[in-house]
Design goal:
- By secondary structure, the chain is mainly alpha-helical.
- The protein folds into 3 domains: 12-61, no CATH class; 71-111, no CATH class; 120-274, Four Helix Bundle (Hemerythrin (Met), subunit A) (Up-down Bundle), CATH 1.20.120.
- The chain contains 10 helices and 6 strands.
- Helix 7 runs parallel beside helix 8.
- The chain is globular and about 80 Å long.
- 23% of the residues are buried.
Length: 282
């Protein structure tokens, strides 16, 4: 009977740890962790030849150099975000880097939008649709031969504000936000007269004021804490105030005002709410 050949035992050398387990190479010389700085999750244990084992060892000891991060790669990371957070990303890892108007990372820098850019212009755009709603409300009232003031004081529910009061909130919202982000006292409240002329004039004057504001006036506004008048002793970080309160509250009143007219038969549609879109050819 031929003797049974027993292969020599393999030796396994630990070269470093991943989060799950040690990385081992069959029959390789010991390699320090410094020589293999990049963790490897799995090494195939069926590297039967010494050449295969040596190749694995060399690839671990001399990992391929990583490409430097460029401004373009920073923008690609920011593009993975959505909504307002996309526009106020302040580093390659979308982490807050403090006040300022630049995103800086290895290889370059590029502009980012500040809290003004993601709020005031969009509020003003929606305010610009209110005259369209008023025109259609007036046309509907003329067609049905009733006083348009009925629509201006109409409401969806007894405990909700009427149409003109909703528009008053739309006018005050961006004015107050513009002041608070600059550390100034919020705009004073006022009572808007429920007439077409008064509402139209108030909206027009507000948009003129908003159009005079500039983005650079709000550099560093992210660092402010905005006090909440309805919760004494409480406040919100400026970015949270814009995203969690000011914008949702503004669009709540805009949608409610629009819905009041729609509910009472005025021929308004979604395009009248959204405003003209900036289409581009593909």
């Amino acid at each position: 009977m031929a003797p049974i050949h027993t292969p020599p035992p393999r030796t396994w050398t630990a070269i470093g740890n991943t989060r799950a387990s040690a990385v081992l190479i069959a029959g390789a010389e010991p390699i320090t962790r410094a020589e293999a700085p990049r963790p490897v999750a799995v090494v195939h244990r069926r590297a039967r030849t010494s050449g295969q084992r040596d190749g694995l060892a060399r690839s671990l000891a001399c990992p391929a150099p990583r490409r430097p991060r460029t401004a373009r790669s920073c923008r690609a990371r920011a593009d993975d975000l959505v909504g307002p957070r996309k526009m106020i990303a302040t580093s390659c890892d979308a982490r807050e880097a403090g006040a300022g108007n630049r995103v800086r990372c290895a290889g370059g820098a590029h502009d980012r939008m500040n809290l003004f850019d993601i709020s005031i212009p969009h509020m003003s755009r929606t305010l610009g649709q209110v005259p369209v709603w008023l025109d259609k409300a007036q046309a509907f009232a003329d067609q049905r031969k009733f006083d348009v003031g009925v629509l201006l004081t109409a409401r969806l529910a007894p405990d909700q504000w009427h149409f003109t009061r909703q528009i008053q909130a739309l006018v005050l919202g961006p004015l107050r936000l513009a002041n608070l982000l600059r550390g100034q006292a919020p705009a004073d409240n006022f009572d808007l007269e429920p007439t077409i002329a008064a509402v139209r004039a108030s909206v027009g004057e507000t948009r003129e004021k908003l159009d005079k504001l500039r983005s650079d006036e709000y550099a560093g506004a992210e660092a402010r804490v905005i006090p909440l008048p309805f919760l004494p002793g409480k406040g919100l970080q400026a970015s949270d105030f814009v995203q969690q309160f000011a914008l949702p509250n503004f669009y709540f009143h805009a949608a409610t005002a629009y819905s009041i007219l729609r509910h009472h038969g005025v021929d308004v549609g979604k395009p009248d709410f959204l405003a003209p879109l900036a289409f581009r050819d593909l």
